[in-house]
Amino acid sequence: MQPIPVIIVSYNTRDLLRECLASLALSSLPTTVIVVDNASHDGSVAMVQAEFPQAQVIEAGANLGFAKANNLGIRHALLAQPTYLLLLNPDAQLTSSSLEELVAFLEQHSRVGMVAPRLRYPDGSFQVAAFRFPTLLMSVFDLYPPRGRGFGRLYHHPLNGRYPQDGGDAAFAIDHPLGAAMLVRAATLAEVGMFNEDFWLYAEEVELCWRIRQAGWAIWQVPQATVIHHGGASSSQFRVRSFLALQQARAQFFRLAYGQRFNRWYRRLMTFAGLQRSLAAVWQWQQQTIDQAELRRRTWAWAKVRQVIQPSNQPKD
């Protein structure tokens, strides 16, 4: 079989990246490893070069974000004209036969353009990794998580974009996976294009999957393939910036996929939530449960949310 390019975008995740690269040895399939480093300053590049000399390292020179950095790796990988490409996060680790299961599924289903594995946390517990495309109601659930007897079940309900967790090992069609591990056909990327580089950190895989589905390709989760995923290793390093990037990315996706009218309703929802959260922060400050610095941080963050989701701050088509 032709070697499968494994593209890993890393930003200051040296120790997790080491585990990720080591896990690739569990696969019996031939692979070529491409690490795109987003200007890490934790010795990631030196570690890869010293411990995994067979891996190719592309130094981006700056933190380009997930989409643009992945595209650097994808363009490089496509020079070899592969059949499939594995897009893998540095905080994800393959398990025995996981890549084999994903490849076998694509080999057997010619109109499936992308497959993803079941994800588990390092302790073995289940991780939600298959989703329906975002809706306004899902945004409401994110802002106001359902609580209380009976209502908590809504979190894992289809209304909140989830698929049933008790489906066993049977593969099933999905709208999009969590972007930690995705095996995609090169032919699919040739038809729909690579990641939209207007997305910096979040929703880039959602937007790519939207185009894949719109082009008539299917996307499936294959639970027989399991990948360990720590989750949020790079994004947790700058929480406020990540929070703002998430809200801007969602507004971008809603505009591109559903149009400006839907996006207006999203902006109204976020404006209401920002006002409510800011008033709650003022009340907490008055009750002396948070200090003035925390009050400023929260109100500033929600004011910035309102700013970044405005159409004037979203890339034009």
Automatic annotation (TrEMBL):
Organism: Herpetosiphon geysericola
UniProt-recorded name of the protein: Glycosyltransferase 2-like domain-containing protein
Leader sequence residues: none
Coiled-coil residue spans: none
CDD domains recorded: GT_2_like_c (cd04186)
Residues in Glycosyltransferase 2-like domain copies: 6-128
